[in-house]
Design brief:
about 950 residues; Arc Repressor Mutant, subunit A; three-stranded antiparallel beta sheet; Rossmann fold; mainly alpha; flat; five-stranded parallel beta sheet
C-alpha cells in the first residue's frame, strides 16, 4: 500500500479502548515517584496511544510528560530519545540553580544554553566524558522536580541510552516517573535487565499490552467511525485480520475510507472489500525487514506459510516449501525462535494475518504460483477436505477449471452448513473472474442468487444475475435467474415495474419447473405495479393455483397457497380466507418446515393490515414458534417479528414495540422493503406517543408509494393526515397523499386503504370539500360491499361521522373498532363523538370522553391524550394529568423488557451480549438495566440473581 493511500484521511479513535486497567496502573505508578513503568507490546499494539492518554491526564496537564523516541536507523544517535525529551524543558528549569556538571550537556542540548551553567573543561577519556554526561542528565532531571519522562521504542535504543537508564535507575531522582516502551520480541538483554535489580523504594510496574478481542475491536472500530457499534461479524473479521492490533485496525479503516469503499450498510459491512486491501506500509515494512534477516531456509518457509495463509500442520507446511524437508524444518525452527511464527496445537504459521499478506505480496509471481500448486496438493490430504483452501490455491495458481470445480463444491458445502455468506463470496469470485460457458455461469449464478445477499449489495448481486441471464443459458436456468432478479428487486424496494418485468420474463422459461413458475405468477399477481388492472393480477393468481397439481412436494403446495391467500386477502377476495383455512388445515395448525412457516407468515402479514387481527395473531405466532428451527439465517424469524410488531401497533398492544422496532430496523438495514416497514410503524407510533414529525411521515408516504407497498402505506397516510389536521395544514397533506388513494382505487386495495379514509374525510370536510368527501364514502360503500374487508364498516362509519351533525356514526364506529380489537381507533371515534355530544348539550358526552381519555392513557398515546384533555377542560370536565408520551409506567414492578434484560444480566452476560440476544442496542440495554436495578434497590449486578429469584 502506498502511504498516499491513507494520507487523504487518516482515522484515529477519539477514545482509548481496551486499556483502562493499564492506564490506571500507569497513572498509579507515576503518581508515586520515583517510579519506573515498562510498557511492552508488539508493533501497533497501542503503546504510544497509552502514553498519549497519560499525557492527557488531569493531574499532568500543568506539567506534561517529556517524551522522546528512538528511531530505526543503522547507527542511532547516542542518547537520542533522552536528548529529544529534554530539549523542551527550558521553561521548567530554575534559572541559575543547576549543578555545574549539567554544563557538560551544552553540545547535546544547545536549546538549553540559556539556563545551563558554563561547560566544564574538556576530557580526553571517552568513558569519563560519558560518565560526566550521565551525571549531567541525572542532575537535570532532578532539577525538574516532579517530572514524567517517557522514552519510546527502546528496542531500537542505542547502547548509550540503555547504559544511561541503568545508571539513572541505580539512584533515581525523587520526583522522576520513568516510562519506557518497547517491543518485547525485539528487546535485547540489556533493556530487559534494566529492572532486574531496582531499589526497594522505587515503584515499578511492567505492563504487557495484549491484542484486542472481538468485543474491544468492535468498540474501537465504532469509536473510529463515530457510531454506537458496528456489526459483530465485521468486528470479528477485523479482529481476525489484524490480530487485534489497534494500529492495524485504524490503518485498515483509514484505507477503506481513503479508497472510498467504507460503506456502512446499517451495521453490516461488505467483507469482500477487506479482502482486497493492501497491508499498511508501517506494518508491511516491519515484517519484510524481519523476514529479510532470515536465512534462505527461513525465507522459504515464510513464503510457503504466506501462500498457505492459515496455520497448517507442519507436514503440510513442509510439503509446500520449495526446499528439501530437512532444510524446511530448520527454517521453521528459525521462524519460531525469532517470534515470527507461532505454534498452536500441532500447526504452525505467522502470528498475524497482516504479516502473511506482507510476505505474500513480496513473492515473485512465478514462484508464488508454484507455491499455490504445491499448497493445493498439500492441504488436499486433510480430513475433512478444506475445499475453500483448495479453491483458493487453484485460483491463484492459475488453474481455472480446477478452481471453479473446487469453488462450487466449497459453496455447496457452505450452504449445507448454513454459511450462505461464505458460499456467496466463493461464487461471486468465480462469476467475476473465471472464464465460464453460459450454462455453467447461469447455474452458478442461480446458486449465488439463492445464497442470499450477505456480502454483496443488492445492485451488485442483481448485476451478476443479469449478466448470467443475458448470456443465454438454457431456458429453465434463465427463467430461474429472472425469477431471482425479480425477487431481489422486490426485496430491495426497487421500482415495481422492474420486478414485474423480470417475473414476466421468468414465467415463459419455467414451464418445466412448476414451483418456480407458480412463485413467479404470485409475484405477478401482487397488485403493486401502476397501470396494471386488478383483473390481470387476479388472473396470474388463478394460473398459480392451476399449477398446484404439478407440484410434487406438499410443503411447496402449502407455500403457494399461503402466498395466493395473502394477495386475495389484500384485495378482500373472500377466497383468501378459504385458502388460509386450507393452509392451517393441511398443516394441522402448526407449520413443520420452512415453506409452511413462510406460508403462515405471508398470510398473517396481510391479514393483520386488513383488520383480521385474531387470524393474523394465530398465524404469525405459529410461524414465529417454528421459524428459528427451520431457518438458520434468522430472516424468516425477523420477518415474523416485524409483522407481529406491525400487528401490535394496529391492535393497540404497544408495550415493548418501540424496542422491538429499533432492533428490527438494525436487522433489516440492508433489506430496504422490510426496513421501510419498520421505519413506518415506528414513525406512526412516535406520533401517537407525542413525537410529531410531519416531514418524516411525508417521506415515508413517498417511499412506500415508490416501493409499491400499498398495504403498509395506509399507516403513514393516516398518520400524516391526522397530524396535518391538528396543525391546520390539511390542504398540503391531502395533496401529498392523493397518489395513495388513487393507487388503492386503481388496484381495488380498499380493504387495507380504508384505514386512512376517516382521516382524509376529516381533512376534506375541514377544507370545505364535504361533498367530495361524501361522494368518496358512498362509492366505497358500494365497492366494498361483498368483500372480505373487516375494517370497512368501522372506518366508513367513522368517516360518515365527520359529515354528520350527530354522534351516532362515531359511536357506531367505536363499537365496531372494539369488536375488531382496534382500541386506538375506537378511542379516536369516541373522542369525536364526545365533541359532538357536548356541543349538542348531551350529558352522555362526558362519559364518552372519559372512555376515550382512559383508552388513550392506557395506550400511552400522549399526543391524543393531550388533545382530549384540552377538550375536557374546555367543557369544564375533570381530566387526568397529561401524559407526555411513552408507555404507561409499571410503578415499582419491572416491565417485561426490564425483567428480560435483568435476568440475562444475572447470568453474567455483558450489555453488548444482552443487546445481541434481545436484538436491542447496547444503549437501550443500559437504560433498561439501570431502571431495573433502581427498582430492585441494587447498586451492582452481583445481587440480581438473588433478588430476581426472591
Amino acid at each position: 500500500m502506498d502511504n498516499a493511500d491513507v494520507a487523504a484521511e487518516r482515522v484515529i479513535s477519539p477514545t482509548l479502548v481496551g486499556r483502562d486497567m493499564e492506564l490506571r496502573r500507569l497513572l498509579a505508578a507515576v503518581r508515586r515517584p520515583p517510579a519506573v513503568v515498562m510498557i511492552e507490546g508488539e508493533a501497533g499494539i497501542g503503546k504510544t496511544r497509552l502514553v498519549g492518554e497519560l499525557a492527557a491526564a488531569v493531574e499532568l496537564r500543568d506539567r506534561p510528560p517529556l517524551v522522546g523516541g528512538c528511531a530505526q536507523i543503522r547507527e542511532p544517535f547516542p542518547l537520542g530519545p533522552v536528548i529529544e525529551a529534554l530539549r523542551g524543558a527550558a521553561g521548567r528549569l530554575p534559572a541559575g540553580g543547576l549543578s555545574p556538571v549539567t554544563g557538560a550537556l551544552h553540545p547535546l542540548l544547545p536549546e538549553l544554553a540559556a539556563v545551563l551553567p558554563a561547560a566544564p573543561g574538556p576530557l580526553d577519556d571517552p568513558a569519563g566524558l560519558r560518565h560526566r554526561v550521565f551525571r549531567g542528565l541525572a542532575e537535570l532531571l532532578a532539577a525538574l522536580g516532579r517530572v514524567v519522562l517517557v522514552l519510546e521504542d527502546l528496542h531500537w535504543a542505542d547502547e548509550q541510552t540503555i547504559e544511561f537508564l541503568g545508571y539513572l535507575l541505580t539512584d533515581p531522582p525523587p520526583g522522576l516517573g520513568l516510562v519506557l516502551t518497547f517491543r518485547g520480541e525485539e528487546a535485547g538483554p540489556g533493556l530487559r535487565a534494566l529492572t532486574a535489580r531496582l531499589r526497594p523504594e522505587l515503584a515499578h510496574a511492567h505492563l504487557v499490552l495484549a491484542p484486542l478481542d472481538a468485543a474491544r475491536t468492535n468498540e474501537l472500530t465504532a469509536s473510529i467511525l463515530g457510531t454506537a457499534q458496528v456489526s459483530d461479524e465485521f468486528a470479528a473479521y477485523l479482529c481476525e485480520r489484524t490480530s487485534g492490533l489497534p494500529y492495524a485496525i485504524q490503518e485498515l479503516v483509514a484505507l477503506l475510507r481513503a479508497r472510498g469503499v467504507l460503506v456502512q450498510r446499517g451495521t453490516r459491512w461488505a467483507r469482500k472489500t477487506l479482502d482486497e486491501l493492501g497491508v499498511p506500509a508501517g506494518v508491511r515494512d516491519s515484517v519484510l525487514e524481519r523476514v529479510r534477516d532470515l536465512s534462505a531456509n527461513g525465507q522459504a518457509v515464510a513464503e510457503a506459510a504466506a501462500v498457505l495463509q492459515v496455520a497448517v500442520p507442519v507436514r503440510e507446511l513442509v510439503a509446500t516449501c520449495r526446499v528439501p524437508e530437512q532444510d524446511a524444518h530448520e527454517g521453521l525452527d528459525e521462524l519460531l525462535d525469532r517470534g515470527l511464527f507461532v505454534e498452536r496445537g500441532g500447526t504452525a504459521g505467522f502470528r498475524h494475518a497482516l504479516a502473511v499478506q506482507a510476505v505474500y505480496g513480496s513473492i515473485p509471481l512465478s514462484r508464488r504460483q508454484d507455491l499455490h500448486v504445491r499448497a493445493a496438493k498439500a492441504v488436499a490430504g486433510q480430513s475433512p477436505t478444506p475445499l475453500g483452501q483448495i479453491a483458493h490455491h487453484h485460483r491463484h495458481a492459475g488453474q481455472h477449471d480446477a478452481w471453479v470445480e473446487a469453488a462450487e463444491k466449497a459453496a455447496d458445502q457452505a450452504v449445507a452448513l448454513a454459511n450462505d455468506a461464505e458460499a456467496e463470496r466463493l461464487l461471486e469470485a468465480v462469476l467475476r473472474h473465471a472464464p465460464l460457458d453460459p450454462a455453467r455461469e447461469g447455474r452458478l449464478a442461480a446458486k449465488l442468487g439463492w445464497a442470499g445477499g450477505y456480502a454483496l449489495a443488492a445492485d451488485e448481486l442483481i448485476g451478476l444475475l443479469r449478466g448470467a441471464a443475458d448470456r443465454q443459458p438454457p431456458g429453465p436456468v434463465r427463467g430461474e435467474l429472472n425469477y431471482l432478479i425479480g425477487l431481489k428487486l422486490e426485496a430491495g424496494g426497487a421500482s415495481p415495474e422492474l420486478a414485474r418485468r423480470a417475473m414476466a420474463e421468468a414465467v415463459g422459461d419455467l414451464a418445466d419447473r412448476p414451483v418456480l413458475a407458480a412463485y413467479a405468477m404470485v409475484g405477478l399477481g401482487m397488485p403493486r405495479t401502476p397501470g396494471v388492472p386488478l383483473a390481470e393480477h387476479l388472473q396470474w393468481l388463478d394460473r398459480a393455483l392451476e399449477r398446484l397439481t404439478e407440484i410434487a412436494e406438499p410443503e411447496r403446495r402449502i407455500s403457494v397457497l399461503g402466498k395466493v391467500a395473502m394477495v386475495l386477502t389484500l384485495v378482500g377476495d373472500p377466497r383468501g380466507a378459504g385458502l388460509t383455512g386450507q393452509v392451517v388445515e393441511r398443516t394441522g395448525g402448526r407449520p413443520t418446515n420452512r415453506w409452511e412457516v413462510v406460508a403462515y407468515e405471508s398470510a398473517g402479514e396481510v391479514a393483520g393490515l386488513a383488520g383480521h387481527h385474531d387470524t393474523a395473531r394465530r398465524l404469525l405466532d405459529a410461524a414465529l414458534a417454528e421459524a428459528a428451527e427451520h431457518d438458520v439465517t434468522g430472516l424468516i424469524e425477523s420477518r415474523c417479528r416485524l409483522n407481529l410488531a406491525t400487528l401490535a401497533y394496529c391492535r393497540g398492544s404497544w408495550d415493548g414495540v418501540e424496542d422491538e422496532l429499533e432492533a428490527l430496523r438494525v436487522r433489516f438495514a440492508d433489506l430496504r422493503s422490510y426496513r421501510l416497514t419498520a421505519d413506518t410503524v415506528a414513525a406512526c407510533l412516535a406520533l401517537a406517543r407525542g413525537r410529531a414529525d410531519a416531514a418524516l411521515l411525508g417521506d415515508l408516504v413517498r417511499a412506500n408509494l415508490e416501493a409499491g407497498a400499498a398495504d403498509v402505506l395506509a399507516l403513514p397516510v393516516n398518520a400524516l393526515l391526522r397530524l396535518a389536521v391538528a396543525q391546520d395544514r390539511a390542504g398540503e397533506a391531502v395533496a401529498r397523499t392523493a397518489e395513495a388513494f388513487s393507487l388503492w382505487a386503481a388496484k381495488g386495495l380498499w380493504p387495507v386503504g380504508v384505514r386512512a379514509v376517516p382521516a382524509l374525510v376529516e381533512a376534506l370536510a375541514g377544507l370545505g370539500r364535504a361533498d367530495e368527501a361524501g361522494e368518496l364514502v358512498s362509492r366505497l360503500e358500494r365497492e366494498l360491499a361483498g368483500l372480505d374487508a373487516p375494517l370497512a364498516g368501522a372506518a366508513l362509519d367513522h368517516a360518515w361521522g365527520f359529515l354528520s351533525a350527530d354522534a351516532t356514526r362515531f359511536t357506531d364506529a367505536a363499537v365496531s373498532y372494539d369488536r375488531l380489537g382496534a382500541p386506538y381507533e375506537a378511542a379516536q371515534a369516541r373522542e369525536h363523538a364526545a365533541g359532538r355530544l357536548l356541543t349538542a348539550g348531551d350529558e352522555r358526552g362526558a362519559s364518552v370522553l372519559e372512555a376515550a381519555l382512559e383508552a388513550y392513557g392506557g395506550l400511552g398515546a400522549g399526543w391524543d391524550l393531550d388533545r382530549a384533555v384540552q377538550l375536557s377542560r374546555r367543557w369544564g370536565l375533570p381530566a387526568p394529568a397529561r401524559h407526555r408520551g411513552g408507555p404507561r409506567g409499571y410503578g415499582s414492578a419491572l416491565s417485561p423488557r426490564e425483567d428480560a434484560v435483568a435476568r440475562l444480566a444475572a447470568t453474567g452476560l455483558t450489555n453488548k451480549e444482552i443487546a445481541k440476544e434481545l436484538f436491542l442496542s447496547a444503549k437501550t440495554v443500559d437504560k433498561h438495566l439501570g431502571s431495573a436495578m433502581r427498582k430492585l434497590g441494587l447498586r451492582s449486578r452481583a445481587g440480581l440473581a438473588h433478588r430476581l429469584d426472591a
